[in-house]
Amino acid sequence: MNPDYDPQRLDALLQGLFDEALRDSEVLELNATLLKSQSARSHYRKRLRIHASLIRQRRVETVVATQTPAPVRRYWPAALGLAAAIALLAVFSLSKKPVAEITGSTAAIWSGQDTPSSLTGPLDLISGYAEITYQSGVRVILEGPCRFEVTSATSMQVAHGRASVKVPKPVNGFHLDTPAGRITDLGTEFGVAVGSGVEGPVILTEVFDGEIEIPAEDTPRKRLSTGDSLAIVRDSGNTRLISTLEDYRIDLADTARRLPPSSGSSLEAGNLALGKPVTSPAFYAKKHGNVFPPHSLTDGRLNDSGLPGDWSFWLAPNGEAGEFTVDLLNAETIGRIDLQNTRNRTYGDRGFREIQILTSIDGIDFQEVLRAELQRIPELPPPGVEFPFESFTFPAVNARYVKLVGISYYRHPDRPLDNPNHGGGLNEIRIFAK
Q1: pLDDT computed for residue 16 by the predictor
Q2: Of 204, 224, 243, 263, whose CB count within 10 A is highest?
Q3: How far apart are CA 91 and CA 17, in angstroms?
Q4: d(Cα 430, Cα 415) in Å, to the nearest integer?
Q5: Pseudo-torsion of CA 218, 197, 223, 167, nearest 10°?
Q6: Do 168 and 40 fall within a single domain?
């Protein structure tokens, strides 16, 4: 069974403790490791016994060699035990001081609670952004939905979601643990998106500045430098590194590297479509979690956010404008629809142009109530800033089903007409009573 701590790292910390050479950050790291792991504490006691035995052996050899009584040294083992106890007590006494704290948030919604009072155990950030700052100065910006855990003074585990990590230059060796393995900073700033595909975990990573180490295929570790980006794919215990997802280079340029300011998020009050089921004849779906299903249209997550296997917007298949239908579950009198277009993240090759809105009571017979044209989203706004919604009104109609049919879509302006990477898409639909 693999230990729940790093034995080599613990041995290095204990050697520093015995040599009285631990830095403050290392004391915090040792403290966190011992508090978390029973097996680490057993290992500590074993090392302490060995160390004390070596000290006693040195005393015996010295006495035999000199044949000179050394009454003071007979107290050394006891002094060692006392010193070790005091050292251990000092380490544990620091446990009252958290190794990391929540130092800011923007539109953050947490699972089952308000802002957590402490970073103990796994936490779920449902939506929004949170800033976690370690005592060492390491800062992590998390974007929901995100499941994470502060595991020590020098590490964090991200099971799902987006994170950007900035490590100040005096600090070295911060670890971000993911389902596809450990990412180790080498004095840097980097971003990750922890998601999944059909084959297993898919971790997108990009170095914004400096260097990191990631799990590799043919060697235990691989270094990435400023501007490098790869996806770490884990399948049946094997690690593969890929530089593109289908035809797209790995790109985390839309990752929040600073805590975004409050965007004054539009209210969802009265939105009949929120959380309602959506169906579509087809949607864009490729390997490695490049899947954009229709239920993303009513999930309340705005802008082209997300990660492999959990993107927040819908895309039609290549070359198709596409269509989808929202089921309000009950007949409602409606007269307004708000639409938030997409541009497919940094790629700018998707989004509806002309659309048709139809409604139905039974889901069989549909009547047109509106034709409209949406605006192109020309640039990717900063993280946390919403894409614009466009509002369309029409004469009140009683309907349970609302169908949107794409007539045309925006193409990437610099690509030839025969390039297949075009199609319709939409980020969010809101439906309101008249």
Answers
A1: 73
A2: 204
A3: 10
A4: 32
A5: -150
A6: no
- Which segments of 37-154 are extended strands (E)? 100-110, 123-134, 139-152
- The Cα angle at residue 60 between residues 54 and 65, in degrees rounded to 5: 125
Burial annotation 252-279 (CB, 10 A radius, 16+ → b, else e): bebbbbebbeebeeeeeeebbbeebebe
Examine the fold and report which residue of 69, 96, 123 is the final residue of a domain before the chain moves on: 96
Average pLDDT over residues 152-178: 93
Q: How far apart are CA 360 and CA 130, in angstroms?
A: 42
Whether 332 is in a domain gets the answer: yes
Element (H, E) at 231: strand 229-235
Q: Examine residue 272 and state whether it is found in any structural domain, yes or no.
A: no
Indicate whether 116 belongs to any domain.
yes
- Does residue 105 share a domain with residue 81? no
In eight-state DSSP terms, residue 423 is: B
Other CB atoms within a 10 A radius of the CB of residue 229 amount to 19
224 contacts 205 by C-beta, under 8 angstroms: yes
Q: Which amino acid is at 331?
A: A
Measured from the Cβ of residue 21, the count of other Cβ atoms closer than 10 Å reads 9
75-92 pLDDT per residue, tens: 334 444 444 544 554 454
Number of domains into which the chain is organized = 3
What token pair was written down for 262?
């409050």
Is the same domain home to 174 and 57?
Answer: no
Q: Are residues 160 and 223 in the same domain?
A: yes
| Whole-number Å distance between alpha carbons of 375 and 340 | 10
Rounded to an integer, what distance in angstroms lies between the CA atom of residue 102 and that of residue 119? 8
Residue 64 and residue 118 in one domain: no
Q: What pTM, to 2 d.p., does this model score?
A: 0.72
Q: E strands along 299-388, which residues?
A: 314-315, 323-340, 354-360, 367-373
| Residue position matching structure tokens 């790292």 | 9
CATH code of the domain containing 376? 2.60.120.260
- Tell me the residue range of the domain where 88 lies: 7-96
pLDDT tens readout for residues 337-350 = 999 999 999 889 99
**Are 128 and 197 within one domain?**
yes
Cα dihedral 201→202→206→212 (10° resolution): 30
Rounded to 5°, the CA angle 64-66-70 comes to 85
Would 254 be classed as within a structural domain?
Answer: no
Asked whether residue 235 falls in the same domain as residue 143, the answer is yes
Answer for the pair 349, 401: CB distance below 8 angstroms, yes or no: no
Shared domain for 163 and 299, answered yes or no, is no
Q: How far is CA 410 from the centre of its chain?
A: 30
Pairing of strands 175-178, 155-166: parallel
- pLDDT on residue 364: 96
